[in-house]
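Page 47, continued from p. 46.
Same chain as before, 278 aa.
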Amino acid sequence: MARTADNLSKYRAKRDFKKTREPKGIIKKSKGHSYLIQKHAASHLHYDFRLELNGTLKSWAVPKGPSLDPADKRLAMQVEDHPVAYGTFEGIIPKGEYGGGTVMLWDRGTWEPVGDPVQGLAKGKLVFKLYGERLTGEWTLVRSFRNEGKGNGWLLIKHKGDDAVVEGDSGKFVQENATSIVTGRTMEEIAQDQNAVWKNKHEVKQKKARKPVTKVNSTPSRMPGFTPPQLATLTTTMPKTGNWIHELKFDGYRMILSKAMRFPKIIMCFWSRKKFRM
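Result:
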């Protein structure tokens, strides 16, 4: 294996790890080839495209996100290497810190280099295959220009000739997949999770708003009628788009509970179906 890539000094120099929950810049020797994309709402919304190589994540900021149309070449600005542990980060980078904003795990999987990836990076043309949960097939990163102080300009291009190509995509795939691949949350929902933000222990604590008191009705609520349970639909093909979760198929029962306030009464409705997906 080649010598470990960048020592992450640039990554560490740009961050105060007493203030941010981002992983510290620790290099771990690894032969892994993880791949991920993080949707990042910093000063400008962009997609951070990352490929694991020799112990770090090679990283590019793609302003418009990837396109499934080979004719739609997307600008990708190469930035500093990131630690491999960054591949699991989803949360909020505090305002005022480098890259402050909301981070979503948009895609993840593995990648396979076509040819020598180290030489490809050096020559400015990296060809690879993606095995992600959203992006698949063969892709290319081609250096288009150098801009010292602002990173290197590359182009992220989808290759022709595989089932993942969508001509005329024009960002539609990115727009249709607007939730986290891990938690299923939107950017707004991640931004509202204040437990994911570092807070200064010396800051003034805000008074918690009192929750309104809910009065219990002294009159028993009317019990609802029968509600049919939600059932899955059996199909023979996998969905091409959307945020889907697949589980093993089990046979069993669905149970619905209704409870009237004040004077508890529980109605249990059982629905049996021999063949359905949980």
